[in-house]
Amino acid sequence: MKNKEQLKKELSPIQYEVTQNNGTEPPFRNEYWNETRDGIYVDIVSGKPLFSSLDKYDAGCGWPSFTKPIIEEEVMEKEDYSHFMVRTEVRSKTADSHLGHVFDDGPGPNGLRYCINSAALRFIPKDKLAEEGYGDYKKLFDEH
Asked: What are phi and psi of 124, to 5 degrees?
């Protein structure tokens, strides 16, 4: 696992603030809130696949929103009592990166909305999956 000093050098200031200090980027002024291409979203720190564009939808909140993770085990949930609220924080298991929060007002069958900071993610377009080392995930899009 990378230490904080390595991460400070590798990540942008907003990526570091979000993933390491539980920060939040501004709504509607972040990289992926309105991304519509097919592909997957991976943890900016570990590179582990987290979410797919197939499960992404416009929740109107200004952050990327998903109905479910690609791999349930890679996304951990934790109670968050900050900002005088009770919320469920979402973290990546491998890198322990803060990703965002999950709410129970989503449209999918499980009713969840994973509201995720773009700064915690790296988008890999469908046509770049193989060359980026995520070729196994291409089949997700072949089935649709």
From this structure: -115, 110
Check if 115 is active-site.
yes
The single residue of 115, 116, 124, 129 carrying the catalytic annotation is 115
Domain count, the chain: 1
CATH number at residue 114: 2.170.150.20
Token pair of 113 as six digits: 């909305």
| pTM as predicted | 0.93
138 in a structural domain: no
What is the C-alpha separation between 50 and 68, in angstroms, rounded? 9
pLDDT in tens, 6-23: 999 999 999 999 999 999
Instruction: Order across the sheet with 39-43: list the strands.
Output: 49-52, 39-43, 121-125
Buried-exposed string 26-56: b where 16+ CB fall within 10 A, e elsewhere: eeeebbbbebeebbbbbbbbbebbbbbbbbb
In a domain, 134, yes or no: no
